[in-house]
């Protein structure tokens, strides 16, 4: 379990980097799954990262699509960016990743949090994935550990382990911009659910407080938006300061027990995401579809009476 506050060393890095390193962020929003894919780049070197991309999937027909991924590839090429990273904040349960498809077109290293191995173990068993499904994270080019620093061109960045929604969630802080996956949503909507296998509302609270210990002006980029009641437009960017003041679930002053009671009660009312089964089977493989069977066709399995 990570320290609940940002370590002193990490804080030093963050304070230095949030002062003058301002990456450019362009967001692509998938209205079918309410997912925000962010393309972030360093204007000085054109080094870029794609965070949490989406492959379309029609579950009734079993058909995949790459329209949004193609838009991202076009944007990267059109702006003369050099794709260095494809970052996943976690094994998503509501959409399929397009990271391997984008990587084929543009290169870059595919990365996720090191605790992916725990998620692979849980879902490898659930889907009876067999011995050919490696549960060591080897489908990814890099596994980030908590507090690990890296560079996006000339911009310093740090990976933070923020478990709760899943055991392996990561946030990536790149300059003054933090890509926080499924932790906080917009202040008027609240927080991510914590009831998937391996989820933990108490861990989520601690991860969120850790993110909220970043400087108040830190830009936060979210993985999803569902519009809050009374809001007509989708939004995916806010700040630490705005979340601390206004987040309906976890603004300053909300204690851990109060949050856990609220989150657990709310999660009990939520149904499973429509794309849970295909998403998890593909994303636990780093965005690759399950291997083809002897007839050359790939299949998605549905475990009966297990979830
Ligand atoms: Fe998620």
TrEMBL record:
Gene Ontology MF term list: hydrolase activity; metal ion binding; sulfur dioxygenase activity
InterPro entries with a match to the protein in the record: Metallo-B-lactamas (IPR001279), Mito_Persulfide_Diox (IPR051682), POD-like_MBL-fold (IPR044528), RibonucZ/Hydroxyglut_hydro (IPR036866)
Keywords tagged on the record: Hydrolase, Metal-binding
Transmembrane region(s): none
GO biological process: glutathione metabolic process; hydrogen sulfide metabolic process
Pfam families: Lactamase_B
Metallo-beta-lactamase domain location: 34-224
Gene3D superfamilies: Ribonuclease Z/Hydroxyacylglutathione hydrolase-like (3.60.15.10)
PANTHER family reported in the protein's UniProt record: PERSULFIDE DIOXYGENASE ETHE1, PERSULFIDE DIOXYGENASE ETHE1, MITOCHONDRIAL
Protein name (Swiss-Prot/TrEMBL): MBL fold metallo-hydrolase
Species this chain originates from: Novacetimonas cocois
């Amino acid at each position: 379990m990570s320290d609940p506050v940002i370590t002193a060393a990490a804080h030093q890095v963050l304070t230095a980097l949030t002062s003058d390193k301002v990456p450019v962020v362009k967001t692509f929003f998938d209205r079918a799954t309410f997912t925000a894919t962010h393309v972030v780049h360093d204007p000085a070197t054109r080094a870029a990262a794609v965070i949490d991309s989406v492959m379309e999937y029609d579950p009734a027909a079993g058909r995949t699509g790459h329209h949004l991924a193609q838009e991202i590839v076009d944007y990267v090429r059109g702006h003369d960016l050099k794709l260095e990273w494809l970052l996943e904040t976690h094994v998503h349960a509501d959409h399929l990743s397009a990271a391997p498809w984008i990587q084929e077109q543009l290169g870059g290293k595919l990365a996720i949090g090191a605790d992916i191995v725990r998620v692979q173990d849980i879902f490898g068993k659930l889907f009876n994935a067999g011995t050919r499904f490696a549960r060591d994270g080897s489908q990814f080019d890099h596994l980030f550990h908590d507090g690990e620093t890296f560079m996006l061109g000339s911009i310093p960045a740090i990976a933070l382990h923020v478990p709760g929604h899943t055991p392996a969630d990561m946030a990536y802080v790149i300059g003054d911009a933090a890509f926080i996956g499924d932790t906080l949503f917009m202040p008027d909507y609240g927080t991510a659910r914590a009831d998937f296998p391996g989820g933990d509302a108490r861990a989520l609270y601690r991860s969120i407080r850790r993110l909220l210990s970043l400087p108040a002006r830190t830009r936060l980029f979210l993985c999803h938006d569902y519009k809050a009641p009374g809001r007509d437009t989708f939004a995916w960017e806010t700040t630490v300061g705005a979340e601390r003041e206004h987040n309906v679930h976890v603004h300053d002053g909300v204690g851990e027990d109060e949050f856990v009671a609220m989150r657990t009660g709310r999660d009990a009312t939520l149904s499973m995401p429509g794309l849970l089964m295909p998403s998890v089977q593909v994303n636990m493989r780093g965005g690759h579809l399950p291997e083809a069977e002897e007839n050359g066709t790939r299949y998605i399995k549905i475990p009966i009476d297990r979830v």
